[in-house]
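Hi C.,

You asked whether I'd gotten around to modeling the 516-residue construct. I have! Everything is below, sequence then structure, no commentary in between.
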Amino acid sequence: MSAQDRLAELTELKTAARQGPDPAATERQHAKGKLTAHERIELLLDQGSFHEVEALRRHRANGFGMERRRPHSDGVVTGWGTVHGRTVFVYAHDFRIFGGALGEAHAAKIHKLMDLAEAAGAPLVSLNDGAGARIQEGVTALAGYGGIFRRNTRNSGVIPQISVMLGPCAGGAAYSPALTDFVFMVRGTSQMFITGPDVVQTVTGEQVSMDGLGGADVHAAISGVAGFAYDDEETCLEEVRYLLSLLPQNNRETPPVEATGDPADRRNDALLDLVPADPNQAYDMRGVIEEIVDDGEYFEVHALWATNIVCALARLDGHVVGIVANQPASVAGVLDIHASEKAARFVSTCDAFSIPLVTLVDVPGFLPGVDQEHNGIIRHGAKLLYAYCNATVPRVQVIVRKAYGGAYIVMDSRSIGADISLAWPSNEIAVMGAEGAANVIFRREIAAADEPDIVRNQKIKEYKAELMHPYYAAERGLVDDVIDPRDTRQVLVRSLDMLRTKHADLPSRKHGNPPA
C-alpha cells in the first residue's frame, strides 16, 4: 500500500471515529437535545485548536459479544486545545458508543490525558455523558474509575478541574465530579446519583424520576453538588469558557489580568442609599457587589444553594478576586450549615489558586435551632473557620453593617488572619445585638423596675453607646479603618495592590486535618 493510500485510510478511520457508529446514533443524540462529543468540544475550545490523542484506541475483545463491536475511540474523545488562547485539556464521553460506558481502554485514555494536564500544568475539563462502568469488562472497569479518582485527588489544588454534566452519571462515576473544583449541569438532560430511581424504589418504596432524584436543579439548589445549572449545552459551555478566563493555569501562576475601562478610583455613591441604616432591614448584597467590582460583572458560584451567603469571582482593577458576602435578603444573612460549607469550599478554592479574598460582612450570627445543632453546625461552621485560617492569599474584610458573635469572628476577622479590616460607619460589632445583650446584662434591674420597658430601652441605648459605636473596634485595633462607603472600591483596589506581593508560609506538615 502506498503512502498516499495509507494517508487516505488514516483519514477515513479518523472520520469514521468522529462520525460515530452510525448516523442513526447521532440522530438519537440530537433528538434528546444533546450534542455529540466533538460538537461539545468545538463549542468549548477556540475554533480549530483541538488536538485529539488516541483517536484510534480500541478495547481488547474479551467475550460477552464485545469482539463484534470494537469501534475506534472506545467511547471517549481526549485531547487538548485552547480557551481564550490558553491551553486546556478535555475529555468527552461519546454516548453513541456503548452509552459512553467506561472500560479498560476508555479509562486508560482518560488517565493519560489527566497525566498530561498535570505535567503541562493546565486546566482539565471533563464533558460527562456516560452510563457508568462497562459491565462486560468487570473489575477492570471499576479499576479504571479508581485511577481517575486518584488523579482527581492528586491534582486537587494543583490544576483547575471542571466537570460538565451533559448526560447521565450514575454510581461510582459520580465521585469524579464530586472531587473536582466546579460542577456544571444542564437541565433536562443531565443527572447524577449513586443509586437510580429503580433501586431507590426497591429499597425504600419511594417513587422518583431521574430528574427528581439527581437533576440539575436538585443538585444546584438542594444538594449543593453542582455549582451551576443552565437550560442548554451552548450556554453551559460558554459559561465554562468564562470561568476558565478567571482562573490561573495552575497553582504556581496567578489568574490572568485584563485591562478595564472602569476607573480604580470610581466612587460608589449608590452605596449610601443601597444599604439601609436599620440593621434589621433586608437588602440585596448583590447590589453592593455590582457597585464595587469592575463594570458590575461577577460570576456567582452556587447561586441557587445556601442563598444566605454569596460566593462569586469578579475583577477589581482587572485583577481576579473571590468575594464572600452575607446576604441579608435571604434568612437575614445568618450563617447555617449549608452556608458554612459553601463558603468554606469557595475560600479553599480561591486560596489554592492564588485568588485574593474580599469578605463583605453583614451577619446577625449563626442560625439557632435544634435541627442545626443536631446536624452539626459546630462541625460545619468550623469548616469555614478552618478555611479562612488556613488561607494565605491576600484577605480584606469589609464590615458593611452588623457583625455579631462567633459569626463575626468566622467571617474573616482580624483575629483569624485578615490582612486588612475595613468598616463602614454603619458597622455594629458585638457579641450579640443590643436588645439581647441588655436583656442578659441588666436582667435583674429590668425585672425589678416599675416600668421595665422604659428601663430596657434605656439600657439598650447605653449598651449601643458604650460597646457598639462605629469606632469601638477601630479604637482597639480590630478594624484598620472606618471608611466612607463611597470609597469602598478604591480602598479595596489600593489594599489588594499593596498585598500583591504577600508571602505567607504555613507550618511544615504533611497536611492539615480539617473538620469533616
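If it helps when you're writing up: The domain at 11-246 is CATH 3.90.226.10 (2-enoyl-CoA Hydratase; Chain A, domain 1).

Thanks,
B.
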